[in-house]
Amino acid sequence: MRFACVCALLVAAAGLSACNKATPPDKVQADISKASQEAAENNAKAEDTQKKTEAQATDELAKAKADAEAKAADKSVGAVADAALVEAQGANKVALAKCEALQGDAQQQCKDNANAHLKAVKERVAAAKDNSQPSKTQ
Fold it and tell me: Which residue of 22, 107, 109, 118 has the fewest C-beta atoms within 10 A of its own C-beta?
């Protein structure tokens, strides 16, 4: 029994000493080189992905900015057109009041001219607003 215990201890000691065996330096160097190469490849892929993502975000930002500027310009055109119409309506009222000082055909001609001018302004305002509206088919 004592012999069996000693044999078991020797086998265990031999087994433990095999676990702590050093790896040859050339294999260690090969493992380090392989790990370094894989890390470099992974870093390169990550940088490439980052650059693509940043470029896409920049493009999306530029498009959103252009869309916002276009909408602001459309609103600005509408506001300018509305202001021109209000001004033309006021000028029309003044012109019609001045026409009252005339008589007969001259008065009617004066009113027709004032109303024709107002009508032309209204048409230009409508055209400007139609041209500034974004296309509904987009």
Answer: 22
